[in-house]
Design a protein that fits this description.
The protein is 1% helix and 58% strand. By secondary structure, it is an all-beta fold. A hairpin with a 6-residue loop joins strand 40 and strand 41.
Length: 474
């Protein structure tokens, strides 16, 4: 140890999550890791543009995504210009400062009506997506970010209010309202070989009347839960699959009266529990129901709760929700008013017995949504770190990075080597390009010394030596 340094050696978080040559944080478990600073709960950055100029200033709608890598995703959106609908895909990269850069958008479909508008997208893995307008497409990005689009296949005759769920890497199920069949609810399984889609031989109707909206979530091998709004009730049915055949199990299903006609959003929260999140007719109220599934039988986890109603900012419109990797947290985002409301975000917590739901974080205003009534959440890095990252994406071509952590941390000093030696105070040598006599800060995201952003850490003695003037724990 140099005489002009005060150092201490710490274990490195997960063995490799702290980078020598950067300022680091001390976590509440006694380990050091890279910035940004951790705090228990949700952290946000500023709203940033994904597609420059919103595709030449046109309005971007119906955003959907799949993750390609830790800092890369495939972004789908529809442009509406002069009555023409055009759906695009583009590869987007996230840099170290959490800004976006995008490649050249590729056209998937164009039409003079909403038949080319995105309805849903599912991730098949390996950079491959199943995208549905009223036509189904396989869209794939390779290792060089080259996007290919397979030949479109009709989903059905005039399917609307469509949702998708992946059964496995080679099958997808779609649930939708079939407009040419009196609006009946229908499900159909599609098989995938390469970029070729083959529809199941027939659809299966699950109502004999017009439905509003529906959602499907996979429960396990060849088994899913379908929830749909029909005749002033939410109906729950277990689906079972065999190849491209699907059975809708009415025996053991659940019917639950609920106010409003919000689109059901389903998230699996344990092996036998599914959370339904939806809007209600009451202003600013979100209904949350947890369903317990045993075989093909569906019940309410707690029968005496009144829809687990929670009050949210504004009118709670156009929501999306995704289960975070811990399974007992659900990230939720919504628009506070149609046309001119703000984009909000928070998380919900699930009780240890999996039966009840509550607000877990403050409801945070992420900014004006520019009048585009849509919300989408993309989870990044699922299952690899306790710092779960997500993008909250309204229509309009913008996004906010959200991070959820179970750890909390404080800036402590400069990591000198891979052995975990942290300079707490004194001289740091081996830097480059410093301005002699100028104050330096630890960048709040990258941890690198800079002249403008972050926490003040010291003064440059030479162009390669920084003096940490005092302990920097904040």
């Amino acid at each position: 140890m140099a005489k002009d340094q005060i150092t201490r050696t710490y274990p490195i978080y997960q063995g490799n999550k702290a980078t020598p040559g950067k300022f680091v944080q001390l976590l509440d478990n006694g380990q050091v890791s890279d910035l940004p600073l951790r705090k228990v709960g949700l952290m946000y950055n500023t709203q940033r543009e994904i597609v420059t100029g919103g595709q030449n200033g046109a309005q971007t709608y119906y955003p959907k995504t799949i993750s390609l890598a830790a800092n890369k995703f495939l972004y789908f959106y529809t442009i509406i210009s002069g009555g023409t609908y055009t759906t695009y895909a583009v590869v987007v990269t996230i840099d170290a400062n959490e800004n976006f850069s995008s490649g050249t958008p590729v056209v998937i479909q164009t039409a003079s009506d909403a038949s080319a508008a995105i309805q849903d997208v599912v991730d098949l893995g390996g950079g491959k997506a199943f995208l549905a307008t009223k036509t189904a497409f396989i869209v794939q990005a390779d290792a060089n970010d080259v996007i290919t689009v397979g030949t479109g296949v009709a989903i059905d005759t005039n399917p609307t209010n469509l949702c998708l769920e992946k059964i496995d890497a080679n099958r997808v199920v779609a649930a939708y309202r079939q407009e040419n069949a009196s609006g009946y609810g229908a499900v159909r399984v599609f098989s995938i070989t390469g970029n070729t889609i083959s529809p199941g031989t027939t659809n299966v109707h699950f109502t004999t009347g017009a439905i509003s909206t529906s959602d499907v979530v996979l429960l396990g091998t060849d088994k899913a839960l379908l929830v749909f709004w029909y005749s002033s009730n939410y109906y729950c049915r277990v689906l079972t699959f065999s190849g491209t055949s699907v059975a809708v199990n009415t025996s053991g299903g659940l019917t639950k009266s609920a106010s409003g006609q919000g689109t059901p959003i389903l998230n699996k929260i344990s092996t036998d529990r599914v959370l339904l999140t939806t809007t209600t007719s009451a202003t600013g109220t979100c209904a949350n129901m947890i369903f317990a599934i045993s075989g093909t039988t569906v019940t309410l986890a707690v029968t005496n709760a009144s829809d687990y109603a929670l009050t949210f900012s504004g009118n709670f419109m156009y929501p999306d929700a995704k289960t975070l990797q811990e399974l007992d947290r659900v990230l939720i985002a919504w628009i506070s008013a149609s046309g001119s409301g703000n984009l909000y975000c928070c998380s919900l917590s699930i009780s240890s017995d999996g039966n009840t739901v509550a607000l877990a974080d403050p409801q945070t205003n992420l900014g004006v949504n520019d009048g585009y009534n849509w919300t989408h959440i993309l989870l990044l890095d699922p299952g690899t770190s306790d710092l779960q990252r997500a993008l909250v994406i309204p229509a309009g071509g913008f996004s906010t990075m959200v991070k959820h952590s179970r750890r909390t941390g404080k800036l402590i000093g400069y990591l000198q080597d891979a052995a975990g030696t942290v300079v707490l105070k004194g001289n740091v040598k081996g830097l480059t390009g410093l301005g002699i006599g100028r104050p330096y800060y630890a960048d709040s995201i990258t941890g690198l010394p800079n002249l403008n952003n972050g926490t003040m850490v010291g003064v440059a003695l030479t162009d390669s030596e920084l003096l940490i003037t005092d302990y920097v724990i904040d």
